[in-house]
Amino acid sequence: MALRPDRRAVLAGLASLAAMPSLAAGKPARVVVVGGGYGGATAARFIHRLAPEIKVTLVEPATTFTACPLSNLVIAGARDLAAQQFGYQTLIREGIEIVHDRAVDVDASARTVALAGGATLPYDRLVLSPGIDVDWGVLEGYDRGAAEIMPHAWKAGEQTLLLRRQLAAMKDGGLVVISVPRAPFRCPPGPYERASLIAHYLSLRKPRSKVLILDANERFSKQALFQAEWAARYGDLMEWRGPSDGGRVVRVDPGAMTLETDFEEIRADVANVIPPQKAGEIAARAGVADATGWCPIDAVTFQSVLQPHIHVIGDATIAAPMPKSAFAANLQAKVCAIQLVRLLRGMDPEPSVLVNTCYSYVSPDAAISISGVYGNEGGVLKDVPGAGGVSPAAPDPLGREREAAQASDWFRAINRETFG
Ligand code: FAD
Any residues with CB less than 8 A from the CB of 26 and at least 6 apart, and which? Predict the structure, then answer.
Protein backbone atom coordinates (compact mmCIF):
# COMPACT_ATOMS: atom_id res chain seq x y z
CA MET A 1 0.00 0.00 0.00
CA ALA A 2 1.36 3.45 -0.90
CA LEU A 3 1.78 5.71 2.12
CA ARG A 4 0.29 9.17 1.92
CA PRO A 5 3.03 11.87 1.87
CA ASP A 6 2.07 13.15 5.34
CA ARG A 7 2.51 9.64 6.76
CA ARG A 8 5.82 9.26 4.93
CA ALA A 9 7.17 12.56 6.29
CA VAL A 10 6.06 11.79 9.82
CA LEU A 11 7.40 8.23 9.74
CA ALA A 12 10.77 9.48 8.44
CA GLY A 13 10.86 11.94 11.35
CA LEU A 14 9.99 9.21 13.84
CA ALA A 15 12.74 6.94 12.47
CA SER A 16 15.39 9.66 12.77
CA LEU A 17 14.36 10.32 16.37
CA ALA A 18 14.42 6.66 17.33
CA ALA A 19 18.09 6.54 16.28
CA MET A 20 19.05 9.39 18.63
CA PRO A 21 19.82 9.30 22.33
CA SER A 22 17.01 10.31 24.67
CA LEU A 23 17.09 13.54 26.65
CA ALA A 24 19.88 14.00 29.16
CA ALA A 25 19.32 12.23 32.45
CA GLY A 26 18.27 14.48 35.34
CA LYS A 27 15.39 16.86 35.49
CA PRO A 28 12.78 15.90 32.83
CA ALA A 29 11.98 18.56 30.25
CA ARG A 30 8.54 20.15 30.64
CA VAL A 31 6.29 20.88 27.71
CA VAL A 32 3.01 22.70 28.21
CA VAL A 33 0.41 22.50 25.41
CA VAL A 34 -2.42 25.04 25.44
CA GLY A 35 -5.61 23.97 23.65
CA GLY A 36 -6.97 20.43 23.46
CA GLY A 37 -8.35 20.54 19.90
CA TYR A 38 -7.01 19.02 16.69
CA GLY A 39 -3.61 20.70 17.01
CA GLY A 40 -3.04 20.63 20.77
CA ALA A 41 -4.33 17.15 21.68
CA THR A 42 -2.39 15.63 18.75
CA ALA A 43 0.79 17.48 19.73
CA ALA A 44 0.50 16.33 23.36
CA ARG A 45 0.02 12.69 22.28
CA PHE A 46 2.88 12.69 19.77
CA ILE A 47 5.39 14.46 22.04
CA HIS A 48 4.58 11.95 24.77
CA ARG A 49 4.85 9.03 22.34
CA LEU A 50 8.17 10.25 20.88
CA ALA A 51 9.80 11.12 24.19
CA PRO A 52 8.02 9.61 27.21
CA GLU A 53 10.66 11.19 29.46
CA ILE A 54 9.20 14.65 28.72
CA LYS A 55 6.54 15.80 31.18
CA VAL A 56 3.63 16.90 28.96
CA THR A 57 0.80 18.99 30.41
CA LEU A 58 -2.23 19.81 28.26
CA VAL A 59 -4.30 22.83 29.31
CA GLU A 60 -7.90 22.81 28.02
CA PRO A 61 -10.95 24.25 29.80
CA ALA A 62 -13.50 21.80 28.36
CA THR A 63 -13.77 18.19 29.49
CA THR A 64 -15.50 17.35 26.19
CA PHE A 65 -14.27 18.64 22.83
CA THR A 66 -16.95 19.44 20.22
CA ALA A 67 -15.65 19.08 16.67
CA CYS A 68 -16.41 21.52 13.84
CA PRO A 69 -15.80 19.15 10.89
CA LEU A 70 -19.15 17.58 9.92
CA SER A 71 -20.97 20.05 12.23
CA ASN A 72 -22.69 21.52 9.14
CA LEU A 73 -24.53 18.19 8.93
CA VAL A 74 -25.81 18.82 12.47
CA ILE A 75 -27.11 22.24 11.42
CA ALA A 76 -28.96 20.61 8.52
CA GLY A 77 -30.55 18.04 10.85
CA ALA A 78 -28.61 15.13 9.35
CA ARG A 79 -26.41 14.31 12.37
CA ASP A 80 -26.49 14.50 16.17
CA LEU A 81 -24.17 16.84 18.04
CA ALA A 82 -23.19 13.91 20.28
CA ALA A 83 -21.42 12.34 17.27
CA GLN A 84 -19.14 15.40 17.28
CA GLN A 85 -17.99 15.05 20.89
CA PHE A 86 -14.79 13.52 22.24
CA GLY A 87 -13.22 13.20 25.69
CA TYR A 88 -9.64 13.08 26.93
CA GLN A 89 -9.69 9.70 28.76
CA THR A 90 -7.23 8.07 26.33
CA LEU A 91 -4.73 10.88 26.71
CA ILE A 92 -4.96 10.63 30.51
CA ARG A 93 -4.51 6.83 30.33
CA GLU A 94 -1.43 7.35 28.15
CA GLY A 95 0.20 9.47 30.86
CA ILE A 96 -0.50 13.01 29.68
CA GLU A 97 -1.38 15.39 32.48
CA ILE A 98 -4.55 17.31 31.62
CA VAL A 99 -5.42 20.51 33.43
CA HIS A 100 -8.99 21.62 32.76
CA ASP A 101 -8.44 25.35 33.03
CA ARG A 102 -7.95 28.34 30.75
CA ALA A 103 -4.51 29.82 30.10
CA VAL A 104 -4.81 33.55 30.72
CA ASP A 105 -1.22 34.75 30.35
CA VAL A 106 2.23 33.68 29.22
CA ASP A 107 5.49 35.12 30.50
CA ALA A 108 7.85 34.29 27.64
CA SER A 109 10.99 35.36 29.50
CA ALA A 110 10.18 33.49 32.72
CA ARG A 111 8.72 30.64 30.58
CA THR A 112 5.53 30.29 32.58
CA VAL A 113 1.83 29.99 31.76
CA ALA A 114 -0.71 31.52 34.16
CA LEU A 115 -4.07 29.78 34.48
CA ALA A 116 -7.45 31.33 35.30
CA GLY A 117 -7.62 29.14 38.42
CA GLY A 118 -4.47 30.80 39.82
CA ALA A 119 -1.84 28.12 39.09
CA THR A 120 1.37 28.85 37.19
CA LEU A 121 2.92 26.21 34.94
CA PRO A 122 6.64 26.41 34.10
CA TYR A 123 7.80 25.12 30.71
CA ASP A 124 10.92 24.46 28.68
CA ARG A 125 8.84 24.58 25.51
CA LEU A 126 5.28 25.82 25.06
CA VAL A 127 2.94 24.72 22.25
CA LEU A 128 -0.03 27.01 21.59
CA SER A 129 -2.98 25.65 19.60
CA PRO A 130 -5.85 27.87 20.76
CA GLY A 131 -7.74 27.88 17.46
CA ILE A 132 -9.67 31.04 16.62
CA ASP A 133 -11.51 33.73 18.49
CA VAL A 134 -14.11 36.00 16.98
CA ASP A 135 -12.62 39.46 16.34
CA TRP A 136 -15.52 41.20 18.09
CA GLY A 137 -16.18 44.74 17.03
CA VAL A 138 -14.69 44.49 13.53
CA LEU A 139 -18.11 43.91 11.95
CA GLU A 140 -20.28 46.79 13.13
CA GLY A 141 -23.23 45.63 15.22
CA TYR A 142 -21.90 42.11 15.80
CA ASP A 143 -21.12 41.49 19.47
CA ARG A 144 -21.68 38.59 21.87
CA GLY A 145 -25.35 39.54 22.25
CA ALA A 146 -25.83 39.67 18.48
CA ALA A 147 -24.33 36.16 18.17
CA GLU A 148 -27.28 34.84 20.23
CA ILE A 149 -29.67 36.17 17.57
CA MET A 150 -27.51 35.84 14.46
CA PRO A 151 -25.39 32.79 15.35
CA HIS A 152 -21.96 32.27 13.82
CA ALA A 153 -21.76 28.54 14.63
CA TRP A 154 -18.04 28.81 13.82
CA LYS A 155 -17.14 27.14 17.12
CA ALA A 156 -19.17 23.97 17.39
CA GLY A 157 -21.54 23.41 20.32
CA GLU A 158 -24.42 25.59 21.53
CA GLN A 159 -24.07 27.90 18.52
CA THR A 160 -24.48 24.91 16.17
CA LEU A 161 -27.69 23.88 17.92
CA LEU A 162 -29.01 27.44 17.97
CA LEU A 163 -28.66 27.76 14.19
CA ARG A 164 -30.29 24.34 13.72
CA ARG A 165 -33.25 25.37 15.93
CA GLN A 166 -33.67 28.63 14.03
CA LEU A 167 -33.80 26.79 10.70
CA ALA A 168 -36.29 24.28 12.09
CA ALA A 169 -38.52 27.12 13.35
CA MET A 170 -38.34 29.19 10.15
CA LYS A 171 -41.48 29.38 7.97
CA ASP A 172 -41.50 27.94 4.46
CA GLY A 173 -40.66 30.83 2.13
CA GLY A 174 -38.11 32.30 4.57
CA LEU A 175 -34.75 33.82 3.66
CA VAL A 176 -31.57 32.37 5.18
CA VAL A 177 -28.58 34.69 4.83
CA ILE A 178 -25.02 33.46 5.37
CA SER A 179 -22.42 36.20 5.54
CA VAL A 180 -18.78 35.31 4.88
CA PRO A 181 -15.92 37.52 6.12
CA ARG A 182 -12.81 38.40 4.15
CA ALA A 183 -10.24 35.57 4.21
CA PRO A 184 -8.30 34.35 6.12
CA PHE A 185 -10.76 32.48 8.34
CA ARG A 186 -11.12 28.96 9.77
CA CYS A 187 -12.10 26.36 7.15
CA PRO A 188 -12.10 28.20 3.79
CA PRO A 189 -14.74 25.89 2.17
CA GLY A 190 -16.87 25.71 5.36
CA PRO A 191 -19.38 28.49 4.54
CA TYR A 192 -20.17 26.96 1.13
CA GLU A 193 -20.53 23.44 2.55
CA ARG A 194 -22.92 24.92 5.12
CA ALA A 195 -24.92 26.73 2.43
CA SER A 196 -25.20 23.46 0.45
CA LEU A 197 -26.46 21.48 3.44
CA ILE A 198 -28.93 24.15 4.51
CA ALA A 199 -30.20 24.29 0.92
CA HIS A 200 -30.60 20.52 0.99
CA TYR A 201 -32.63 20.72 4.22
CA LEU A 202 -34.81 23.51 2.85
CA SER A 203 -35.37 21.71 -0.48
CA LEU A 204 -36.90 18.81 1.47
CA ARG A 205 -38.74 20.66 4.24
CA LYS A 206 -39.34 24.27 3.15
CA PRO A 207 -38.92 24.37 -0.63
CA ARG A 208 -40.22 27.93 -1.11
CA SER A 209 -37.31 29.26 0.99
CA LYS A 210 -33.98 30.62 -0.16
CA VAL A 211 -30.31 30.65 0.87
CA LEU A 212 -28.40 33.85 0.08
CA ILE A 213 -24.62 33.91 0.59
CA LEU A 214 -23.21 37.40 1.05
CA ASP A 215 -19.47 37.04 0.51
CA ALA A 216 -16.64 39.51 1.09
CA ASN A 217 -14.43 37.41 -1.21
CA GLU A 218 -14.46 37.48 -4.99
CA ARG A 219 -13.22 33.87 -5.23
CA PHE A 220 -13.65 30.90 -2.90
CA SER A 221 -12.42 27.36 -2.34
CA LYS A 222 -13.72 24.77 -4.85
CA GLN A 223 -15.86 27.55 -6.35
CA ALA A 224 -16.51 26.00 -9.77
CA LEU A 225 -17.45 22.64 -8.20
CA PHE A 226 -19.73 24.20 -5.59
CA GLN A 227 -21.48 26.41 -8.12
CA ALA A 228 -22.06 23.52 -10.52
CA GLU A 229 -23.44 21.37 -7.68
CA TRP A 230 -25.70 24.21 -6.48
CA ALA A 231 -27.09 24.77 -9.97
CA ALA A 232 -27.75 21.05 -10.46
CA ARG A 233 -29.11 20.28 -6.98
CA TYR A 234 -30.74 23.45 -5.66
CA GLY A 235 -31.37 25.80 -8.61
CA ASP A 236 -33.01 29.08 -7.58
CA LEU A 237 -33.04 28.08 -3.93
CA MET A 238 -29.39 29.20 -3.73
CA GLU A 239 -27.79 32.54 -4.57
CA TRP A 240 -24.19 33.68 -4.08
CA ARG A 241 -23.11 37.32 -4.27
CA GLY A 242 -19.46 38.38 -4.24
CA PRO A 243 -18.27 41.85 -3.17
CA SER A 244 -18.65 43.36 -6.63
CA ASP A 245 -22.35 42.36 -6.57
CA GLY A 246 -22.96 43.84 -3.14
CA GLY A 247 -21.97 40.72 -1.19
CA ARG A 248 -19.77 42.42 1.42
CA VAL A 249 -21.64 42.85 4.71
CA VAL A 250 -20.55 46.04 6.50
CA ARG A 251 -23.02 46.21 9.38
CA VAL A 252 -25.64 44.02 11.05
CA ASP A 253 -28.64 44.92 13.19
CA PRO A 254 -29.82 41.90 15.17
CA GLY A 255 -32.88 43.79 16.48
CA ALA A 256 -34.18 44.37 12.96
CA MET A 257 -32.62 41.12 11.60
CA THR A 258 -30.93 43.12 8.85
CA LEU A 259 -27.55 42.88 7.16
CA GLU A 260 -26.26 45.98 5.41
CA THR A 261 -23.99 45.58 2.38
CA ASP A 262 -22.15 48.24 0.37
CA PHE A 263 -25.36 48.65 -1.68
CA GLU A 264 -28.49 47.72 0.31
CA GLU A 265 -30.08 46.47 3.52
CA ILE A 266 -31.36 42.89 3.53
CA ARG A 267 -33.81 41.46 6.04
CA ALA A 268 -33.22 37.81 6.94
CA ASP A 269 -35.46 35.26 8.63
CA VAL A 270 -32.35 33.38 9.74
CA ALA A 271 -28.94 35.10 9.67
CA ASN A 272 -25.76 33.04 10.01
CA VAL A 273 -23.08 35.68 10.44
CA ILE A 274 -19.60 34.18 10.11
CA PRO A 275 -17.57 36.99 11.65
CA PRO A 276 -13.99 38.19 11.16
CA GLN A 277 -11.60 36.05 13.20
CA LYS A 278 -8.16 36.10 14.78
CA ALA A 279 -5.88 33.68 16.63
CA GLY A 280 -7.27 32.56 20.02
CA GLU A 281 -6.82 35.39 22.53
CA ILE A 282 -3.95 33.72 24.44
CA ALA A 283 -1.73 34.13 21.35
CA ALA A 284 -1.83 37.92 21.73
CA ARG A 285 -1.22 37.61 25.49
CA ALA A 286 1.85 35.47 24.74
CA GLY A 287 3.16 38.04 22.25
CA VAL A 288 3.14 35.58 19.34
CA ALA A 289 0.38 37.28 17.27
CA ASP A 290 1.31 40.13 14.92
CA ALA A 291 -0.75 43.11 13.75
CA THR A 292 -2.88 40.82 11.54
CA GLY A 293 -4.13 39.01 14.66
CA TRP A 294 -2.50 35.74 13.48
CA CYS A 295 0.84 34.14 14.41
CA PRO A 296 3.88 34.13 12.15
CA ILE A 297 5.88 30.91 12.46
CA ASP A 298 8.94 29.20 11.11
CA ALA A 299 7.19 26.43 9.18
CA VAL A 300 10.04 23.94 9.73
CA THR A 301 9.60 23.80 13.52
CA PHE A 302 6.37 25.79 13.99
CA GLN A 303 8.30 28.00 16.40
CA SER A 304 7.01 31.53 16.78
CA VAL A 305 9.22 34.06 15.00
CA LEU A 306 8.25 36.60 17.68
CA GLN A 307 9.00 34.73 20.94
CA PRO A 308 11.55 32.03 21.76
CA HIS A 309 10.63 28.55 23.08
CA ILE A 310 7.00 28.91 21.92
CA HIS A 311 5.57 26.86 19.04
CA VAL A 312 2.22 27.74 17.45
CA ILE A 313 0.16 25.32 15.37
CA GLY A 314 -3.29 25.06 13.82
CA ASP A 315 -5.73 27.82 12.94
CA ALA A 316 -3.81 30.43 14.95
CA THR A 317 -0.83 30.36 12.57
CA ILE A 318 0.00 32.21 9.40
CA ALA A 319 0.74 29.09 7.34
CA ALA A 320 -0.85 29.98 3.98
CA PRO A 321 -1.07 28.44 1.45
CA MET A 322 -1.88 25.71 3.99
CA PRO A 323 -5.49 26.39 5.05
CA LYS A 324 -6.89 26.65 8.57
CA SER A 325 -8.26 23.10 8.79
CA ALA A 326 -8.38 20.22 11.26
CA PHE A 327 -6.35 18.15 8.78
CA ALA A 328 -3.66 20.87 8.75
CA ALA A 329 -3.69 21.37 12.55
CA ASN A 330 -3.30 17.63 13.13
CA LEU A 331 -0.39 17.29 10.68
CA GLN A 332 1.30 20.49 11.87
CA ALA A 333 1.06 19.06 15.40
CA LYS A 334 2.92 15.91 14.37
CA VAL A 335 5.62 17.85 12.55
CA CYS A 336 5.91 20.24 15.49
CA ALA A 337 6.19 17.30 17.94
CA ILE A 338 9.06 15.77 15.96
CA GLN A 339 10.95 19.06 15.64
CA LEU A 340 10.34 20.07 19.26
CA VAL A 341 11.78 16.76 20.49
CA ARG A 342 14.73 17.13 18.11
CA LEU A 343 15.42 20.60 19.51
CA LEU A 344 15.18 19.38 23.11
CA ARG A 345 17.63 16.61 22.19
CA GLY A 346 20.08 19.11 20.73
CA MET A 347 19.44 17.98 17.15
CA ASP A 348 18.93 20.24 14.12
CA PRO A 349 15.37 20.54 12.84
CA GLU A 350 14.52 19.00 9.47
CA PRO A 351 12.09 20.41 6.91
CA SER A 352 9.01 18.31 6.06
CA VAL A 353 6.57 18.23 3.18
CA LEU A 354 3.02 18.90 4.39
CA VAL A 355 -0.33 18.09 2.83
CA ASN A 356 -3.97 18.93 3.34
CA THR A 357 -7.27 17.53 2.13
CA CYS A 358 -10.60 19.19 2.86
CA TYR A 359 -13.84 17.38 2.05
CA SER A 360 -17.06 19.35 1.71
CA TYR A 361 -20.52 17.85 1.64
CA VAL A 362 -22.80 19.21 -1.08
CA SER A 363 -25.67 17.11 0.29
CA PRO A 364 -25.68 14.63 3.21
CA ASP A 365 -24.60 11.79 0.91
CA ALA A 366 -22.36 13.57 -1.62
CA ALA A 367 -19.05 15.42 -1.22
CA ILE A 368 -16.24 17.13 -3.13
CA SER A 369 -12.65 17.68 -2.02
CA ILE A 370 -9.52 19.77 -2.46
CA SER A 371 -5.96 18.66 -1.71
CA GLY A 372 -2.71 20.62 -1.49
CA VAL A 373 0.96 19.70 -1.03
CA TYR A 374 3.30 22.21 0.59
CA GLY A 375 7.08 22.31 0.46
CA ASN A 376 9.32 24.28 2.79
CA GLU A 377 11.43 27.11 1.43
CA GLY A 378 13.52 28.63 4.21
CA GLY A 379 10.78 28.15 6.79
CA VAL A 380 7.98 29.35 4.52
CA LEU A 381 5.37 26.95 3.12
CA LYS A 382 4.94 26.99 -0.66
CA ASP A 383 2.56 25.08 -2.94
CA VAL A 384 4.33 22.23 -4.71
CA PRO A 385 3.54 23.00 -8.36
CA GLY A 386 1.41 20.37 -10.06
CA ALA A 387 0.61 18.53 -6.81
CA GLY A 388 -2.88 18.40 -5.30
CA GLY A 389 -6.11 19.46 -6.99
CA VAL A 390 -9.87 19.17 -6.68
CA SER A 391 -12.47 16.48 -7.39
CA PRO A 392 -13.29 15.93 -11.06
CA ALA A 393 -15.93 18.27 -12.48
CA ALA A 394 -17.75 15.32 -14.06
CA PRO A 395 -17.19 12.28 -11.85
CA ASP A 396 -18.49 8.80 -12.55
CA PRO A 397 -22.08 8.35 -11.27
CA LEU A 398 -21.09 7.39 -7.72
CA GLY A 399 -18.03 9.66 -7.47
CA ARG A 400 -19.59 12.23 -5.12
CA GLU A 401 -21.12 9.49 -2.92
CA ARG A 402 -17.70 7.81 -2.66
CA GLU A 403 -16.16 11.08 -1.51
CA ALA A 404 -18.88 11.44 1.14
CA ALA A 405 -17.92 7.99 2.47
CA GLN A 406 -14.24 9.03 2.42
CA ALA A 407 -15.10 12.22 4.34
CA SER A 408 -16.78 10.20 7.05
CA ASP A 409 -13.81 7.76 7.19
CA TRP A 410 -11.41 10.70 7.40
CA PHE A 411 -13.39 12.12 10.32
CA ARG A 412 -13.21 8.78 12.18
CA ALA A 413 -9.47 8.49 11.52
CA ILE A 414 -8.53 12.01 12.60
CA ASN A 415 -10.53 11.73 15.80
CA ARG A 416 -8.92 8.39 16.63
CA GLU A 417 -5.51 9.93 16.11
CA THR A 418 -6.31 13.09 18.10
CA PHE A 419 -8.40 11.75 20.98
CA GLY A 420 -7.82 7.96 20.88
P1 FAD B 1 -9.43 23.86 17.82
O2 FAD B 1 -9.62 22.49 17.25
O3 FAD B 1 -10.53 24.82 17.76
O4 FAD B 1 -8.87 23.72 19.26
C5 FAD B 1 -8.59 24.84 20.05
C6 FAD B 1 -8.75 24.45 21.50
O7 FAD B 1 -8.06 25.40 22.31
C8 FAD B 1 -10.22 24.46 21.98
O9 FAD B 1 -10.54 23.21 22.54
C10 FAD B 1 -10.26 25.58 23.01
O11 FAD B 1 -11.14 25.30 24.09
C12 FAD B 1 -8.82 25.64 23.47
N13 FAD B 1 -8.39 26.96 23.97
C14 FAD B 1 -8.53 28.16 23.38
N15 FAD B 1 -8.01 29.12 24.15
C16 FAD B 1 -7.50 28.50 25.25
C17 FAD B 1 -6.84 28.97 26.42
N18 FAD B 1 -6.60 30.26 26.62
N19 FAD B 1 -6.48 28.06 27.37
C20 FAD B 1 -6.71 26.73 27.17
N21 FAD B 1 -7.34 26.23 26.08
C22 FAD B 1 -7.74 27.13 25.15
N23 FAD B 1 -11.40 21.17 9.06
C24 FAD B 1 -11.12 20.07 8.28
O25 FAD B 1 -9.96 19.65 8.19
N26 FAD B 1 -12.11 19.43 7.62
C27 FAD B 1 -13.41 19.82 7.69
O28 FAD B 1 -14.28 19.20 7.07
C29 FAD B 1 -13.73 20.95 8.49
N30 FAD B 1 -15.00 21.39 8.58
C31 FAD B 1 -15.28 22.49 9.34
C32 FAD B 1 -16.59 22.95 9.37
C33 FAD B 1 -16.91 24.09 10.11
C34 FAD B 1 -18.32 24.57 10.14
C35 FAD B 1 -15.88 24.78 10.81
C36 FAD B 1 -16.22 26.01 11.61
C37 FAD B 1 -14.58 24.32 10.78
C38 FAD B 1 -14.26 23.18 10.04
N39 FAD B 1 -12.94 22.72 9.95
C40 FAD B 1 -12.66 21.62 9.18
C41 FAD B 1 -11.84 23.48 10.59
C42 FAD B 1 -11.36 22.87 11.91
O43 FAD B 1 -12.42 22.76 12.83
C44 FAD B 1 -10.26 23.73 12.53
O45 FAD B 1 -9.35 24.10 11.51
C46 FAD B 1 -9.53 22.97 13.62
O47 FAD B 1 -10.40 22.72 14.69
C48 FAD B 1 -8.29 23.74 14.08
O49 FAD B 1 -7.63 23.07 15.13
P50 FAD B 1 -6.94 23.96 16.30
O51 FAD B 1 -6.24 23.01 17.20
O52 FAD B 1 -6.20 25.08 15.69
O53 FAD B 1 -8.18 24.60 17.04
Answer: none
